[in-house]
Structure formats: structure tokens, C-alpha cells
Write a structure and sequence with these properties.
The complex is a heterodimer of chains A (322) and B (798). With 322 residues, chain A is mostly helical. Chain B has 24 helices and 22 strands. Chain B has 798 residues and is of the alpha+beta class. In chain B, strand 15 and strand 16 form a beta hairpin.
Chain lengths: 322, 798
């Protein structure tokens, strides 16, 4: 296992380098960020050249890639073009905490909905409950977040006034005691978490249900039942663990969603998260921030893969890495 | 009873009923429409029964006010008990006089005085200063007025205020009182006779004084990237800076300018702005030994004793420091006009500077920038940066007019060398996150991702802002709508979308109003006069146009008549955008109403007639030029989704008159970086914006020397290739003439040529919408010109 880990981690380095090079090349196709200066008659062309030079845009893109790599390695991640005086690391770190809170809460709620409902649907296949759960799934799957989010916002915030209009905190609450802040944070994140969880729980629920149905018809389950084991033990000890294998993969691969897979929900609920940051950075040609965010995603994807491999070994005794 | 009698009686009863009906509080004066600036004050006071119209349907807002009338109003405003002594105090106000009781009451309370000869002169008019003086007494703030050291009215005629009224006028404009408005041209007009609308304002302010306190919550849609003004141009940042960062000479959306931190606005008329006659320029020797001839000299003067938010004095050295910041090498900031035209700044005392300029430019009319030098000394440089009495600007200007910092020397070389190396330290300093400025409010804190909090600055020279706290939030457009409906927000300033504005207009929410306005950006077509494959090498007026289609001005005009701008607005922007008929904003003196009317005209019949008259032929339902070229062309635009839909609509409209239009979308970098600068397009669809509301500008857009060509090294933004000698002359005037009136005349005439030759075909103004709670008072913006919070010191909640 140890050798396997070392091997895998070592292969990640060239992989990430390759990924970064490709991403940098692709976003370099966006052109330079000095469009606005060029449409301003007050600014002279020579001055634009000076500013381009300050940002390193007098060099070809592959040269700029190495400048970027250097600043990445020394931990600055490059100066942001749209946030004066800040480097990409600082810009990302402004948004990361809220994004992680939001992403984690959504993922937990998603699992809390999907796992029990999925198991229930599998055990009571074609029952009324299963049909309702399946109905909910299709509702969630087919509901676009920009619409569902706005409906929730208009209903619960505008019409009923139960929730704030968006954002992640009430201005001024930052000086209140921790508990008050926590309650305030929950009030702010409640609607967006529910929207995101409902919309994404559908997929997971279907996975759980299918995989459970597959397992439950296996011979060893029949054997377990024939042995006279209680239904509880059959389900939770024998079936659940086996049914979890594909679900674990799915979850490990959704790791990047923890920090910002929800640009649209973030926008509807005005949550200053990574998804919105990425969108704004792309629109503002802010290479450094775009690179920082995309690289974070890339790292999480490869780590998620690694994690899935490890978890296989945990849930599936047949898998071992020697 | 006969039927006829019954009907007569019924009519009689009804007429009496009408006569007996109380005077309706909603009475509408024909001469005070809802759009009148004093509408709110007049209608409220009429409803209160304090003020009456001249007739039931007219108020006479422009009519002068007499002393007797004013005494009556003051008595009403202060709810004075009417006094009718047996022997009148004044011979000319006998007990039979209609205002007898009011005059006696107002005089007894000390608000008004008689003349030494025991007369009151009830029919004499009253000046604005006198009216304000009475209001100051009635409000009981004589002490505050007496304590005023320097007159501050933020107006262009401060020197005309009589000495006795110095304190009165100053307090009259303080946020807490707001007794006076400005007359056209941002004038106090202290000695002018007051009119009835102005009296309504002052009485309203006495009866309903602006309130202090509370929290103002404003949504600005986006989180500013920085609050260091010179480093960014994000609209959200300007809204925050509008409350904490005063400038020396600001301007408003009406196009008026006034001295704010400066004492006087330098103009040619007042002699503070001198243009040396050609050949008579004085010679000065710069510190580098180089000799130079300034073409103009401008004297600026700061108001004395202004204080930064930290309590330190604002001096002229802050202005020199702020100016130098725009010119140092490693600041990622464009060294724009006018800074790159400076030759010398001389300090005169602590508040005055004399500036000398290398070239004529009107940009200095907006004053010079200033930043707190001492803040940067303490927090960035950790040393003092001394500004010498004379700072010379030996600026290196490239052959293409570009300023090059590395080859320039400013002030003494040691100072400039030092500052040139500090750009990085300055731009990464804490000034981005916690700026220290001067304004009615000052920075308090910034909770990233959530809000920026401001508090009133007690040092502010006009008196602190009226709210105890101002919160700027960064909610997206949905959150803004919900925040306004649920009253969590007092206002949503920018980013309120066309469709949401429409929702609120059509389904109004009680207590909420929507203000829709055009922006300074206008969507248009730049139409090439030349064939992109056969561009003339050195185009000049007289060089023939050679585009197979668009060399025909008739076709350009026909396109304009064939486009229904209103329909484009309705179909694409929920009717939120106004048709655009020219580059001059309609609040400015430069606009030409006749041109706008013709340029926005939708008349497909006229469009086809224009083509037929010019010899175009319609075959197979499609127009052809006299040479037989089919009118079939491509519009190039950027990838914005709304541009696609606009062009889809226009395509249909043109098809109806027999014109084939296609379009392609490319990235902005390609359109603005490659295609337009090299004139490789038939028609380019994009938006121009204006830097300021005061000047439309446009020399580099319309002058023939600004046609990008081989000869001029592809410089300039006259992408259409327009070359009209007469229009050139006018462009030279509005670019160089330093007399604002001459410039406005030139713009006015220039638009006629522009509309005749159609180098650009205007489509729609962009729009902006502000939604706000009706109880928030003071918001005053009619064009989205950047800083909506320019007068935030006067805002309060009713």
C-alpha cells in the first residue's frame, strides 16, 4: 500500500505539470486583458505597451507559463490582474472558506437525502414510497438551478421573509458572539444548500438504488438470509458495504464540487464562492486567478481519483495494492 | 313634481356638492409637473395647507417672493400663533393688510425685521441670501453660522456672496439643513431674488428637517477589487469612493462642474487659466537644464483647513504627490492626458499651486488628483518624501505621443528615482483595503465577500454624513430584487437588470421606486467607407471613398431609417433602452436635438426612397447599387449574447426593405485588437463610452488624421475612415479650444455633419436602473455616469 501511494503520488507531478501547461495554453487563446485601455482615446499606445510589459505580456505565452510556474512554486500564484495589489493566492483565499462551508454542507445534505432514500427505494422497489422518491429524483434532476433557486428565493425570502436575500452573513454580525454568527450563517446558507443538495441528490440516489438492487439479488445475500440472519444484519453488514463501492467512486470524484461546483447557485444566492470567482476571472482575463482556480480543481480531481482507489481497498476486501 | 324640476334640483344639489368638496390635497399645478425639482416640496406643503397656489391650477414656481409672503410661510412653517395687536408695528402693514397677523408674528419671533423707518416694505422682494438668513434664525442655528470661518458653498459664484451672509450661506448648504438649491451653472445666486419654488424648499426643510442617524444599506452588485481609486475603474468601486473620496473639481450628471476641495474653478474668464498667445510663451528652464515653453498656466487653490479623515491637514503637496503617482514607471496605471502634458508645478503657500503645461488640453478643468502623502510616508515608504517648491516634469514623449516613464525625470532626480522604484510597494499597500481619504463618510471596515462599512467623518468640511453607518453589499441581481422587495436593502445602485426593472415597474411594490436612466455607453455600427482590401495608404479629406456599398452615403442613411430602434429595445431589452441619435448625452449643452430626431427616425418608406433617389435599383426584391452590386453585407461584433439578439432583430427589419445583412461574432480581443485598428470590417457593431459627461470628446474618433492607415502607423480610432474637411475643422475646435462655449458650439455643428455622412450609425443607449425605498431622500442621478453617490452627504431617511 505504501509503495503504491508513493508511486501514484510521484506520477501526479508530471501529470499536473502537463495539465497546467495545457490549461495555460488554452486560456492564452483568450487574448490579452488590455482591450479596455485600447478603446480609451486618452491612453497612448506606448503607455499600453509599458503596462503590458509590467504584466509580462510582451513575452510569448510559453515564456509567461514559466514565469507563472515560478510564482506558483514560490507560493504567490502570480499577481491578479483584476484585483490590484493582490496575488492569486490571496484572491482565492478570500473566497475559499465560504465555498468550502457551502460545498461541504451541500454534500452532507445530499448524502443525507440520497443514501437513506436510495436504500429505501431499493428495498421497497415499485412501492408508493419508491415512486415518490423516484419522482423527487426526476424533479431534482430536471430542475435547472437558476430557475429553482430563484423560485425558492422569491418564495422564502421575498414573499415570506424567512430568509435573507442572499450573501453569507448579515452585515454587522461579525462582531457578535460565535453562536449568533453560526445561526446567522445557517440562515444564509440554508436555501442555497437545499437547492444544490436537492438538485444533485437525484443522481446519487439513483446510483445507490441501482447498486443496492444489484447487490441485494446476489447469491451471498440469499445465503445470508438463508442462514437466518436478521434483515438488519443482512442489509447493513452484507449488502450496504458492497453496494457502496460505486457510490464511493462517485463521491471521491465529486471532491472538486466541495470548493466550487456551483457557479449558478452561487450567483443566484450571491455567495462569494470559487465558482463565481472563476467566472469573473475569466470575464476579466485574469489569467493568474483562472490558473489558480483551475489548478485547484485539477489537483482535487487527481486527488479524488487517488482517494477513490484507496477507498476501494477499504470497502472491497478483494482489492489490494501490493 | 315635474321631471324637469327634479332634474334641475338634482343638478343644483350636485353642483353645491362639488363646490363644498374640500380642496383636494392632490391638487395638480400645471406649472409644477412631477418632473419639477420642487414638486415634492410644493405638493407636500400644499397638502399641509401651508402654501397655496396663485390660482387653483397654477403655483408660479418662478415668480418672485415678497417679504409679506415669506413672513406668512415662516409663520406657517414654525406654527406661530397669529398676532394681531391693536396698533400695528409697521405703518405699511396695517391691520387691513392680508398678511397683518403673519408679519406681526414673524417679527415678534425675531425671524424677520422691519426697517429703521418703521416700515416693513411687505411688497419688496427678498433675495436668496435674505431668505436663508431668516431660515437660519428660524432653525436656531445663528451660532453655527457665526462660527463659520471660511465660506464653503461648493458653487461657482462663491466670491459673489456678500460678507454678511458668509456663515448663513455656508450652513444653508450643510447636509443637516439643505436650505438652498443651486441655480443653473451650480450657482448660489445669493443676491438674486428668491422665487416661490425655492421658498417651498426652505419651508419644507424647516418643517421636515433632514434626519440624522440610521444605517443606509446599498447594494452595488459586485465586490470592488480595490478601494485605491487610481488602480481600477470598476463601477462598484466608484460608488463606494463617492462617499469617502472627494475630488478637487467634480462634475455631476447634468454636466455641471464646481469647486469641491478647490476654492475656485480655474477658467479663462476668472484669469486662473491663462493660455499664452502663440509666439508669446514664456521660456522656463527645467531642473534638468532643458528649456521649455509652456502653452498655458493654471492656478489651483485648495480650500484652507480641510482635513483628511485622520485629522491631518490637506495641503498642496498632497496634490503634487497624487499627480506624480500617475507618472511613475512601475504603476500599472495609464499616464493619461492631462498628466503627460505637465511641465511644472509650483507650490504657493500651503494651498495654492501654479501649473505650467507643455500643450493645450481641457482635461485640467477637472482638477488634479490628490492622495494623502503622509499616509504613504507612514505606511509604505517609512520615510518622508519631500515635495520641493518647484517640481519640474521633464517628460519623455515618444514620436507617437506616448509618455515613457523610464526616460523621464520628475522633480529632483533623487525623489523621482526613489518613487519610480516604489510602484510595487504603493500598489500592493494596505491603501487597497483600507483607504484614508476625505469625504462625508470614512472607511471603517471591509468584510471580504460580504460588505464594506463606512462611518461618518466628523472632520468633513461640510458636516458629517447623515447616516450613522453606510453598508455597501455585493448581492447579485436576484438578491438585489429580493432585498428591495423585502426592504433589507435601501437601494440597489447598479446591476439591476432591464427585466427586473420591468417587473418592478409593472408590478409595483409599495414604498419602492425604480429610476431608469440611460448610461454613457451607446451601441452603434461603425460603417467602413473603404474596401478593407483596398484601404487608401494616406487618407485625407478629398481621398475618394472606395467601399463598393458604403461609399454611398444614401445607403448609410437608408440603413438608419430602416432600423426600428424602439422595437430592438422592446424585443431584446424589455424596452429598457432608449434609442440613441448621437454621441452627445442629452443632458449636455453639446447635444443637437434636431440631429437626434433625424438619427432615430424609423421610416422604412423613406429608407427605400433614399436609395431610389440615389440611383439604387431593386431587382428580385433586393436593392443594388447603381453599379449593380447587391446590398448584402456582414456586421462583425463581439460574442455578447445580447448583440446576437439585437442583430437578429435588425436583420429582419432590413430584410423587409430589401437589404441583406449577415453577422459574425468574434472575441473582443480580435475585434478591438485586430479588426478595427486595421479597418478589416464592413460594419463593426460595438459600444463607445464617454469618460466624462461634460465633454463628448471624439477628436480621435472623427478627425481624418486619426484614420488608422499605413501613413500614420495605424494610429487613431476613426475606424470608419471618415474624412470631411469641415467636420475636421470642428473637431479641431472641440479638441483644442479652451473656451467651453466654443467647444459646445463645435460639437453642436459637428453632429450635423456626422448625421449627414453617417460614419457611425447609432442604435441604443445602454441603460441603468436604480431601485430604492421611497423614504430614502436625496438620490439625484439622471444618467448613469459612474458615481451615483456623488451627493451622498445629502442623503437621509425620512
Amino acid at each position: 500500500m505504501k509503495n503504491f501511494l508513493i508511486r501514484r503520488i510521484l506520477t501526479l507531478i508530471p501529470l499536473l505539470l502537463l495539465i497546467s501547461f495545457i490549461i495555460f495554453g488554452i486560456i492564452s487563446l483568450m487574448g490579452d486583458p488590455f482591450e479596455q485601455l485600447r478603446t480609451n482615446p486618452r491612453i497612448s499606445p506606448g503607455d499600453i505597451l509599458r503596462i503590458q510589459k509590467l504584466w509580462g505580456f510582451d513575452k510569448p505565452w510559453y515564456m509567461r507559463y514559466f514565469f507563472w510556474l515560478r510564482s506558483m512554486i514560490i507560493g504567490e500564484w502570480g499577481l491578479s490582474l483584476t484585483t490590484p495589489g493582490k496575488n492569486a493566492l490571496q484572491v482565492v483565499s478570500f473566497k475559499l472558506p465560504v465555498s468550502i462551508q457551502y460545498g461541504t454542507a451541500s454534500l452532507i445534505l445530499e448524502l443525507l437525502i440520497a443514501l437513506p432514500l436510495g436504500i429505501y427505494s431499493a428495498l421497497r422497489k415499485y412501492s408508493l414510497g419508491d415512486n415518490i422518491a423516484t419522482g423527487l429524483v426526476f424533479f431534482g434532476l430536471s430542475m435547472p438551478t437558476f430557475f429553482f433557486g430563484v423560485v425558492m428565493l422569491m418564495t422564502f425570502s421575498a414573499a415570506l421573509g424567512w430568509f435573507p436575500p442572499g450573501g453569507f452573513m448579515t452585515p454587522g454580525i461579525e462582531t457578535e458572539p460565535f453562536l449568533t454568527q453560526l445561526v446567522d450563517r445557517i440562515r444564509h446558507l440554508f436555501l442555497p444548500v437545499v437547492v444544490l443538495a436537492l438538485v444533485s441528490a437525484g443522481g446519487v440516489l439513483r446510483y445507490v438504488r441501482t447498486s443496492f438492487l444489484e447487490v441485494i439479488n446476489q447469491d451471498y445475500i440469499r445465503t445470508a438470509r438463508a442462514k437466518g440472519l436478521s434483515e438488519k444484519v443482512v442489509i447493513y453488514k452484507h449488502a450496504l458495504r458492497n453496494a457502496m463501492i460505486p457510490v464511493v467512486t462517485l463521491l471521491a470524484l465529486s471532491l472538486p464540487a466541495l470548493i466550487g461546483g456551483a457557479t449558478i447557485t452561487e450567483t443566484v444566492f450571491s455567495i462569494p464562492g470559487i465558482g463565481r470567482l472563476l467566472y469573473q476571472a475569466i470575464m476579466g482575463h485574469d489569467y493568474m486567478v483562472v490558473m489558480a482556480v483551475l489548478m485547484m480543481f485539477a489537483i482535487l480531481v487527481v486527488l479524488g481519483n487517488l482517494l477513490a482507489d484507496i477507498l476501494y481497498a477499504v470497502v472491497d476486501p478483494r482489492v489490494s495494492y501490493e | 313634481m315635474s321631471k324637469r324640476l327634479f332634474v334641475c334640483m338634482l343638478v343644483a344639489v350636485m353642483s353645491i356638492g362639488i363646490l363644498l368638496m374640500p380642496v383636494n390635497a392632490q391638487v395638480k399645478f400645471t406649472d409644477v409637473p412631477v418632473t419639477h425639482w420642487a414638486y415634492e416640496y410644493i405638493s407636500k406643503l400644499v397638502a399641509d395647507g401651508i402654501i397655496k397656489g396663485l390660482t387653483p391650477t397654477t403655483y408660479g414656481p418662478e415668480r418672485n417672493l415678497t417679504r409679506a409672503e415669506y413672513a406668512t410661510l415662516i409663520s406657517g412653517a414654525k406654527k406661530l400663533t397669529i398676532i394681531k395687536p391693536a396698533t400695528p408695528t409697521f405703518a405699511d402693514v396695517p391691520p387691513t393688510h392680508w398678511a397683518y397677523g403673519f408679519v406681526e408674528a414673524a417679527v415678534k419671533s425675531g425671524y424677520l425685521k422691519g426697517y429703521p423707518d418703521k416700515s416693513f416694505k411687505p411688497n419688496n422682494p427678498i433675495t436668496r441670501a435674505e431668505m436663508a438668513a431668516v431660515a437660519v434664525k428660524a432653525r436656531g442655528i445663528e451660532k453655527e453660522a457665526e462660527g463659520v470661518k471660511d465660506l464653503i458653498a461648493l458653487a461657482n459664484d462663491e466670491e459673489a456672496v456678500p460678507a454678511w451672509a458668509k456663515g448663513i450661506i455656508t450652513v444653508a448648504y450643510r447636509p443637516l439643513y439643505q436650505f438652498l438649491n443651486y441655480r443653473t451653472g451650480r450657482m448660489v445666486a445669493a443676491n438674486a431674488l428668491a422665487n416661490r419654488a425655492e421658498a417651498a424648499l426652505i419651508i419644507f426643510r424647516l418643517r421636515y428637517p433632514p434626519k440624522m442617524g440610521g444605517t443606509l444599506t446599498i447594494d452595488i452588485h459586485q465586490e470592488p477589487a480595490t478601494l485605491f481609486g487610481m488602480l481600477d475603474s470598476m463601477s462598484a468601486m466608484y460608488q463606494v469612493l463617492g462617499s469617502i473620496y472627494d475630488t478637487t473639481i467634480p462634475s455631476d450628471w447634468r454636466g455641471e462642474m464646481w469647486p469641491q476641495m478647490d476654492k475656485v474653478r480655474p477658467t479663462l474668464e476668472n484669469g486662473k487659466w491663462v493660455v499664452y498667445p502663440s509666439g508669446k510663451e514664456p521660456e522656463i528652464t527645467l531642473v534638468t537644464g532643458k528649456k521649455a515653453k509652456p502653452t498655458m498656466k493654471i492656478d489651483y487653490e485648495l480650500r484652507p483647513n480641510l482635513k483628511w479623515a485622520d485629522g491631518k491637514l490637506v495641503t498642496n503637496k498632497d496634490v503634487v504627490f497624487g499627480t506624480i503617482l500617475y507618472l511613475i514607471k512601475d504603476m500599472p496605471v495609464a499616464s493619461t492626458d492631462p498628466y503627460d502634458k505637465l511641465l511644472r508645478i509650483e507650490l504657493v503657500g500651503d494651498y495654492k499651486i501654479s501649473t505650467y503645461w507643455r500643450k493645450n488640453t481641457y482635461w485640467p478643468q477637472f482638477g488634479l488628483p490628490l492622495y494623502p502623502k503622509h499616509w504613504f510616508e507612514t505606511n509604505v515608504f517609512k520615510r518622508t518624501v519631500d515635495i520641493p517648491v518647484t517640481t519640474d516634469f521633464d517628460l519623455f514623449i515618444d514620436s507617437d505621443g506616448s509618455y515613457l516613464a523610464e526616460k523621464s525625470v520628475i522633480g529632483n532626480k533623487a525623489l523621482f528615482d526613489y518613487l519610480n522604484g516604489q510602484g510595487n510597494a504603493i500598489q500592493t499597500s494596505a491603501y487597497n483595503d483600507a483607504p484614508m481619504n476625505i469625504g462625508p463618510y470614512k472607511f471603517s471596515k471591509w468584510v471580504r465577500g460580504s460588505h464594506i462599512e463606512l462611518v461618518p467623518d466628523p472632520n468633513y468640511f461640510m458636516g458629517r454624513g447623515l447616516f450613522d453607518k453606510v453598508i455597501y453589499r455585493f448581492l447579485e441581481t436576484e438578491g438585489a430584487l429580493v432585498g428591495i422587495i423585502s426592504k433589507t436593502l435601501d437601494m440597489s445602485l447598479i446591476g439591476f437588470s432591464d427585466d427586473h426593472a420591468k417587473v418592478l415597474r409593472e408590478r409595483p411594490v409599495k414604498g419602492v421606486k425604480v429610476v431608469s436612466m440611460p448610461s454613457v455607453y451607446w451601441e452603434h455600427w461603425t460603417i467602413n467607407y473603404d474596401d478593407p482590401k483596398k484601404l487608401p495608404d494616406d487618407p485625407k479629406p478629398g481621398t475618394p471613398y472606395n467601399h463598393p456599398l458604403f461609399k454611398y452615403i444614401a445607403l448609410r442613411k437608408a440603413l438608419s431609417y430602416a432600423i426600428d430602434r424602439k422595437a430592438v429595445s422592446n424585443l431584446v431589452f424589455y424596452g429598457g433602452r432608449e434609442p440613441c441619435g448621437g454621441y452627445a448625452l442629452f443632458s449636455t449643452a453639446a447635444k443637437n436635438a434636431e440631429v437626434i430626431k433625424d438619427a432615430t427616425l424609423y421610416d422604412p418608406v423613406k429608407a427605400e426612397k433614399t436609395l431610389a433617389d440615389a440611383g439604387f435599383k431593386k431587382t428580385g426584391g433586393i436593392w443594388h447599387t447603381p453599379e449593380g452590386v447587391k446590398v448584402d453585407f456582414t456586421v462583425t461584433t463581439t460574442v455578447r449574447a445580447d448583440r446576437r439578439t439585437q442583430l437578429e432583430v435588425i436583420k429582419e427589419q432590413l430584410a423587409k426593405v430589401g437589404i441583406i445583412m449577415r453577422f459574425e461574432q468574434v472575441s473582443g480581443a480580435i475585434l478591438f485588437g485586430t479588426l478595427t485598428p486595421s479597418r478589416q470590417f464592413d460594419i463593426a457593431h460595438f459600444a463607445w463610452g464617454q469618460n466624462t459627461i461634460v465633454e463628448p470628446g471624439g477628436y480621435t474618433l472623427y478627425h481624418s488624421s486619426a484614420i488608422p492607415s499605413k501613413a500614420n502607423g495605424w494610429q487613431g480610432q476613426n475606424y470608419s475612415g471618415w474624412r470631411n474637411a469641415e467636420a475636421d475643422k470642428l473637431a479641431e475646435i472641440f479638441n483644442e479650444d479652451l473656451n467651453a462655449k466654443n467647444r459646445n458650439d463645435a460639437y453642436f455643428k459637428h453632429q450635423v455633419f456626422w448625421n449627414r455622412d453617417v460614419p457611425e450609425l447609432p442604435l441604443l443607449w445602454w441603460s441603468a436602473h436604480t431601485a430604492l425605498q421611497e423614504n430614502l431622500k436625496g438620490y439625484d442621478v439622471g444618467i448613469d455616469v459612474g458615481t451615483h453617490t456623488w451627493n451622498i452627504m445629502y442623503w437621509y431617511r425620512e
